[in-house]
Amino acid sequence: MSGATTTAIIKRKGQRPTEAFDREKLHHSIVAASLSARAPEGQADNIAYAVTNYVLEWLESRPEVTSHDIRLVATRHLRAHHPDAAYLYEQHRNIL
């Protein structure tokens, strides 16, 4: 998987301009949630890699999605790897 996608991401509630999907941004968010849930660093990176690749495959046939759609898909896949990290990732906006 190259990570290159032309999918446009519509930001939350349309408050900010649409932007291109950023694989590294998603990867970093998943790593951060996993580390916050006390996953070891290597495991957090492996989980983030798996979740990011899953989301990239999901995006392949979609020219445009919302940031909320990405969060839902990533959370669903993350839950299979680390339920506590998935909860933190899903609730991130509510916790802050």
From TrEMBL:
This is ATP-cone domain-containing protein. Pfam families: ATP-cone. It comes from Candidatus Microsaccharimonas sossegonensis. The keyword Ubl conjugation does not apply. Residues 7-96 form the ATP-cone domain. Signal peptide: none annotated. Keywords: ATP-binding, Nucleotide-binding. It comes from the Bacteria. PROSITE patterns: ATP_CONE (PS51161). Residues 1-21 are annotated as: Disordered. InterPro entries: ATP-cone_dom. Coiled coil: none annotated.
